[in-house]
Amino acid sequence: MEGGHPGADDHIMNVNESSMNENTSSPAPHGAAPDRTSVLIVGGSIVGVSAALFLAARGVTPILVERHTGISPRLRAKLFYPRTMEAYRAVGAADDIYAIERDRPRSEFAAVVESLAGAEIRRWRLPAAEDHSAVSPCQGAMVKQGDAERVLRTRAAADGADLRFGHRFVDWEQNAHRVTARVLDDRSVPYTVEADYLLAADGSASSIRERLGIAQRGDLTLAHSMELAFNADLRPVLEGRALALAFADQPGRPFISWTTEQDTGAVSVGYDPATTDPDTAFTPDRCQAVVSAALGLPASAFRITGARPWQMSAWVAGTYREGRVFLVGDAAHVCPPVGGFGANTGIQDAWNLTAKLVSVLRGHAGAGLLDRYEPERRPVAELTVRQSVQRLAGAREQVSGGGQLLSEAAVAGGYRYPAPVVDAVGSSAGTPLPWADEPDRWRAEPGTRLPHRPLEAAAGSSTLDLVRGGRHALLTGRQGWSWAEAARALDPDHAVLDTVVLTPQALAPGASFTDRCGIGEDGAVLVRPDGVVCWRAAHAARAPHAVLKDVLQQALLQ
């Protein structure tokens, strides 16, 4: 279960299961012959269904299997950062996600409160509510994860993804050529799926990771909490406050969250397992008292619908790949639920890996490109987990072994991947670069996200929109014709590489692409399908065709 707490879909007590019976796909027919797909995805929560959409939107038809038929009723992620929304924008889903929150009360702030109905002690604006227009065409979104999953399911199915909800993944084998999986359909009839690759998006308790024997490195038990789900009309309490979540200044530091409809929610309260047995300590009367105190409402104003103990964890998998099997999302990493990083990090895993898979499956890149997934994404997860733990501890500057506390924008959108191609811009040579920084400080250094600059072509359009269709893009300044001609000679059919010369007329007034990228008007930037810069040149070269050919071969491992 992505973006939730460990084991979130396995230990819910006293919750109405009828909400889990929503089925958004029809079972595919199965015969004696194995079903065949390029990519099999196990797990249909936010990361799995995002991976399915990212593949299908680029013409690769995955099969996704998920044992549940409907959307989990649990409260999970509802903070989606701009870099995540950029990925959804690239596959046509961002506007549908933004549309969800247009008719809902604005949720811009978090607060420490005496109780939810009582006085606020302090409040702060959430990162998703900040103005990101200077660095991104996308704003953050405050949307309930379940609502986002519905949008993604619909979009993925429309683009051709084979979504099999109610189907249970049983086991698999792999060899040098394929993965063979055994699955039970929604009538418990077994069938077989053969795939080139398997994506394990089956959550923090991943059976796939466990069978592979991949260790979890970190702290499996940071804290213990009891989550108490409730129904209540919170609109009178929240009206005009624009709150998204709150912490009660009470014993156990209750964390209060609620749906965007403001009619259901949960109170998570900490406890010490050395002195408290949750099965006996949290009696109905105790649960009622905890929720009443946290909300500041009488017992008659709410109804408790479930109680679930969970352990807060902070770990990263020892490896992200075993042969043709890849870990993504909570199967690969889990961080404390502070900062809203969990689901976003998993979605970016899927964005990174699916771009590589599309290039390999199309024959544009060598299979070795997939070896770069872990060296790129695992350090990001380590950074994110470390930053989450620091926030949990209330760090402000330095903590032992943890390093500097970064902004949410830097953690979620300003990280840098190791660059396999040498940066041809000499000004930064010998200057150590951080692994994460504020997004507006990057200047298209290889391994960083392509800088956003507004385009004149359409309102709200961006240089990020020039990277499309699962292809690389070569972007040049207005005098970069030699680079453009070399690119067209290398790939006249634009199968692998799109080429755009950004003249002043192409950019919105006041926007400069070359200055933002640290290159001259005769320079160029090569961008991967996931929007990450893999190479740049400050100026024209004597032999641009040879240079660009060599760079592409390094980038694609051809």
Feature tags:
single chain, 558 residues, alpha+beta, FAD/NAD(P)-binding domain, Glutaredoxin, eight-stranded mixed sheet, 14 helices, disordered N terminus
CATH-derived architecture of the largest domain: 3-Layer(bba) Sandwich
What percentage of residues falls in helices of 4 or more residues? 25-40%
What name goes with the CATH superfamily of the largest domain? FAD/NAD(P)-binding domain
Q: Which of globular, elongated, flat, extended, rod-shaped describes the shape? A: globular
C-alpha-based Rg, rounded: 24 Å
The CATH class of the largest domain: Alpha Beta
Q: What separation lies between the terminal Cα atoms?
A: 37 Å
Biggest pleated-sheet summary: 8 strands, mixed
Structural class: alpha+beta
Tally of extended strands?
A: 24
Average pLDDT for all residues: 89
The count of domains is: 2
CATH topology of the largest domain: FAD/NAD(P)-binding domain
Q: State the helix count.
A: 14
> Which band does the percent of strand residues land in?
15-25%
